Amino acid sequence: MKKGLTVSVIFKAQSLNYGEGFGNISELKKVSRGDGNQYTVASRQCIRYDIVRLGAEIFNWNLQVVDKSKGTVQFKDELTIADSQEMDLFGYMKTGKKTESSQGGSDTRSAVIKLSNAISLEPYRSDMDFLTNKGLADRINEHPNLANVEQHLSYYTYTFTIDLSRVGIDGEIEITNEEKCKRVLEFLEIVKILNRNIRGRQENLSPVFAIGGIYNIANPYFLGRIKLNSSKEGFKIDTKVIDDVLESTFLGNNIKDDTYVGINEGCFINKNKFEEKLGDRVLGVNSFFDNLIKFVKKYYGV
């Protein structure tokens, strides 16, 4: 039976992903919107990088899976998803080698876990940080070098979606249900404590808010539906758009019936709005993920 797990999260962090920049200015990656504002972006690639990094550090995920035997860095031909959690969960492409009798081609697997970019929920206001290496330069009586770095402290949101029926299956290869379950649970544990090392800082990307559940289709229901409203009292999550999603149906099933919310106390001032809508399915963030873990174990019969 097909099932899809999807969660949209909010976390709070600063200056997560830089582009190439120019001169002595380091620019954050940004997108522009029709409201006239710019919003900073942490790409799905950088989120994937840190998930895989923590998978190796905490759960000993196998990262010795790449080479350059065909002129480009890619996954080794002889390895399969049975050898690599990364290849299983995030997909791969192995290019074929052209010969006199063959034009090559590619062997690909689309990602089982789909990640979105993380987009800031607060607009970028051109904050800059002026830096020098004065401490080093003074040691040898030299003039310091100067740099300008864009800075942005904001709440961010991203979404992940997992097609549970595709985990651990690739053509004729299929791993055990125990290993399928283990890989999904390890991913969820990583999301709970996700962090990013950047420019001497370690930023905390662990969720302060999460909404989602396990549904009859792998669809990112709440992607693009998370918005913040600010006031002197604090931040509110805009519940109007979310309410419309909760009241929608698919194949006769109401989305609300399978949806849970995790929210940390003190981060947002309108937790009661979710409690009015979802009752006892509004939990703390840790309890929210514990609930997902319980459902995943049940799905795989572990």
From TrEMBL:
Organism: Intestinibacter bartlettii
Annotated protein name in UniProt: Type I-B CRISPR-associated protein Cas7/Cst2/DevR
The entry's keywords: Antiviral defense
Task performed by this protein: CRISPR (clustered regularly interspaced short palindromic repeat) is an adaptive immune system that provides protection against mobile genetic elements (viruses, transposable elements and conjugative plasmids). CRISPR clusters contain spacers, sequences complementary to antecedent mobile elements, and target invading nucleic acids. CRISPR clusters are transcribed and processed into CRISPR RNA (crRNA).
Gene that encodes it: cas7i
Any Pfam family hit: DevR
